[in-house]
Predict the structure.
Amino acid sequence: MKSRAKTASVSSGQLVIKDGTKGSVICTEGVLANTFRTRLFGLLGRKGLKEGSGLLIKPSSGVHTFGMSFPIDIVSLDQHYCVVGVFENIGPWTIRGLSLKTRSVLELPAGRIRECGIEPGDKLVLEAC
């Protein structure tokens, strides 16, 4: 339950996001999008995601890539940050991650899901920097 306490205290700022199941670091420069404005705009207007970065959109029941100019990986998470879906190399003009179980979505640079071996059932751990 220690990881839940860390997760619950994260409210803003930068995050380190780890796969608690596999022990790998998913991103060292995660950003929490938890306001109407930050969730609405997400990654729009950016030219890409740099290595080590990610955007955690909370709450979210899925995301779209309308207007984006680069592909991303998308990880759907339940209320306890357990992975319920993974979507790799998603290009512009797509909707992914929609599910009644999805409570937040992690957007990562394309290829990161495969690099980290993220799969449904993994439990992610969030730590404030």
